[in-house]
Amino acid sequence: MSAASGLQRRRAPGGEARTGTPYASDDEDDVVRGRSAQRVKDGIVERSAGSGSIAAIDTRSGQRYAYDPRDVGDEREMLSHPRLTLMEEVLLLGLKDRQGYLSFWNDNISYTLRGAILMELALRGRIAVARNGEQKRFEVADRLVEVRDAKNTGEPLLDETLRMIKSSPPAGIAEWMDLLSGETWNVMKLNLQLKQVRERLAKGLVDKGVLRTEKRNFLLFDMPTHPVADPSLKDAVLRRLYAMITSKSQSVHPDEYYKEEKGQIALRITRTLCMVCCAYCGNVLDNTLAHLPSETHEEAFQRVVSLLVSFGQWPMAPDTPGGGLPGRGTATSFSSASAPKKKTKHKIGAGDADLVLAMRRELEQSSSESAFEVIAGVLNVFVRMDALV
Questions:
Q1: Positions of the region Disordered (predicted)?
Q2: Is 214 helix (H, G, I), strand (E, B) or coil?
């Protein structure tokens, strides 16, 4: 059988198919069965089935193919997210470029990566704080998480976490970070621990062409390492990090973030803020700022701490004009009421007021305010971590 006569599955070439005049062709019954409708455009006859799939025939070449119009929405969503997830960016910052492994003394990155997973799911609109008026009474880190969209993301770690949240009893943000890390006394919930997160992330970066796999000898053992294969993506992550915490200007320009991506990336400033805070709490920031003068190095670290304290509450950064994020009119939570009101001055890095303004615009374009609450809750847990004491 020739390739032209076979049925091929493709992504949709354009928008979703429209229904038109029904037709019934015996020749095409082997392609699509059941009730159907057709449209003809540019010599291509498309026929939709009751299942939602589309079968098409190119009348000029005789080639047949099929696609699911839902793939069009998936492709748009893919273009709105960067090539690397938050977890992958943090891991990439921690890896030594040539040696290809993390510091053996880094005990915080595992827990931090679990928080990054929750933030990534929130950024993608998959999870949010539960719709319940009772939640406002609790600390933002203790508010219950629920699944808003159970559709797979295509990232194995995210999809595995999403399935566990959906199938498990309700739990708060901090509790989920503990469960995903295996830090629980409840033996019935030990199965919720995510296993080999760093190794799986590294293999994912290898698949994306960012890292490569080698073997190195450590004393008596050969261990796989993952040196950087494509430094351009790590350089792009570093540029965003430097723009937020070492810039001489306090203004924020969202168009300067994620310029290397092909699509129109959503929530650019919010994503970068999450990445910077995860890098600090995961103890990978020191390595990336080692080349800076000692005074600038110290100021950059102080800037990240102030970002964590300011945005690790709900509303976020309540001391900024307009009452922070999401702004005035939102009920003040217990955690924001107890937050310190002293304003911190900083010489470098993006200003809190400018960050809040940019994030408000992103919030208006996103679907859920409560997804931002998840981010605030994770940052609040980071503030409590021993690394910040």
A1: 1-39, 319-343
A2: strand
Neighbours of 159 (CB within 10 A): 16
pLDDT bucket at 280, cuts 50 / 70 / 90:
very high
Over residues 42-96, the pLDDT tens digits come to 667 777 765 556 677 767 666 666 655 555 457 778 889 999 999 999 999 999 8
pLDDT at residue 229 greater than cutoff 50: yes
Contacts of 188 (CB under 8 A, 6+ apart): none
With tokens 């509790």, the residue in question is 175
Would you call the peptide bond into 326 cis, given omega within 30 degrees of 0 as the criterion? yes
Q: Report the C-alpha gap between 102 and 111 in whole angstroms.
A: 15
Distance from CA of residue 173 to its chain's centroid?
Answer: 16
In this prediction the pTM is 0.79
3-state secondary structure the chain: CCHHHCEEECCCCCCCCCCCCCCCCHHHCCCCCCCEEEEEECCEEEEEECCCCEEEEECCCCCEEEECCHHHHHHHHHHCCCCCCHHHHHHHHHCCCCCCCCCCCCCCHHHHHHHHHHHHHHHCCCEEECCCHHHHHCCHHHCEEEECCCCCCCCHHHHHHHHHHHHCCCCEHHHHHHHHHCCCCCHHHHHHCCCCHHHHHHHHHHHCCCECCEEEEECCEEEEECCECCHHHHHHHHHHHHHHHCCCCCCCCHHHCCCCCCCCCCCHHHHHHHHHHHHHHCCCHHHHCCCCCHHHHHHHHHHHHHHHHHHCCCCECCCCCCCCECCCCCCCCHHHHCCCCCCCCCCCCCCHHHHHHHHHHHHHHCCCHHHHHHHHHHHHHHHHCHHHC
Q: Is the peptide bond before 169 cis (omega within 30 degrees of 0)?
A: no
Instruction: Scan for tokens 């490569």, then name that residue.
Output: 212
